[in-house]
Amino acid sequence: MKERLEGLRVEALERLKEVSDPNALSELKVHYLGKKGQLTEILRGMGALSAEERPVIGQVANDVRGAIEAVIAEKQEAFDREETARRLRSETIDVTLPGKKRAEGLIHPLTKVTQEIEDVFLGMGYEIAEGPEVETDFFNFEALNLPKNHPARDMQDSFYLTDEILLRTHTSPVQIRAMRAANGRTPLKIICPGKVYRRDDDDATHSFMFHQIEGLVVGPNIRMSDLKGTLLQFVQAMYGKNTQIRLRPSFFPFTEPSAEVDVTCAQCGGSGCRMCKHTGWIEILGCGMVHPKVLEYGGYDPKEVTGFAFGMGVERIALLKYDIDDIRHFYNNDLRFLGQFARM
User: What pLDDT, in 10s, does the model give residues 236-248?
Assistant: First the structure.
């Protein structure tokens, strides 16, 4: 057995000298020193030795194992040094090179326009009010003079979650909530920005989700002329001091009388062009005097106070302000498109 152990030592050391990569080294380690390796195979015959021979053979086996392990460790250390040197060569960093500039985030054009609109109305003494996007049928329709089965509900194809819960179709429910929270206080002057949802097919001018800003003023002796003056001040702040407005009679269940508001085309100044379809005017929002029933739902006495309301789509305002022809550009997350607004 002693001769077999010595022969194993010579064989293993010779083969280890020729090893040129870590994988081959690992294989030889298993071959000679593993649980099913050559050394273990020889030592299985220890049981047949006499009591005097076992210590001698055991010492020889330990010497053989030690010699093989020492060469393996030396080889492994050499391979580790080579790998470290290789990585240092391949991963060298030139600290004299200029750093990489990180891209800075930009304010989205819809956020920018929303902030501009808010600034205009905050400057006129309005407060910002917010409400839930998941709304009850009562606040979204009934309290706005749209009882169940009212034909005007068809104007807003809705996302219902249950029979009484839906995604709000406009920000007008915030007006009811704000009036009730005011508990009869006047004057009440608020704007309500936020997301709204309707079952529209996406195209160049429509989206199932978009942004609205609605305004509400309630107080004694509020007149239609106050509404017109407010909207004129707003559009001139957004589109320039030479911009004019006109009000066309319309219908909304929550206002009476109601009107659509047009502005002089920013592209042609009112002379007529492709953008305004050669009319000189572009529609931007709807408005009117708050319906007496809506005031009652909000906790006000329509015999004591009056009010006006208006609502606009932020996307609509942005399309006109920046002369954009497709609403979908706002949602595609194309940095080439969004980057243009960094300078505006």
Answer: 999 889 899 999 9
Continuous H helices in the chain: 2-17, 22-33, 38-43, 53-90, 109-122, 137-140, 172-182, 224-239, 292-297, 314-322, 335-338
Nearest to 176 by CA among 205, 140, 203: 140
**CA 168, CA 153: separation in Å to the nearest integer?**
12
Residue 77 labeled ligand binder: no
List 218's β-bridge partners, or say none. 188, 307
CA 294 to chain CA centroid, Å, is 35
DSSP 15-28: HHHT--SHHHHHHH
Give pLDDT tens digits for 291-323: 999 999 999 999 999 999 999 999 989 988 888
DSSP 249-302: EEEETTEEEEEEEEEE-TTTTTS--TTTTTSSEEEEEEEEEEPHHHHHHTT--T
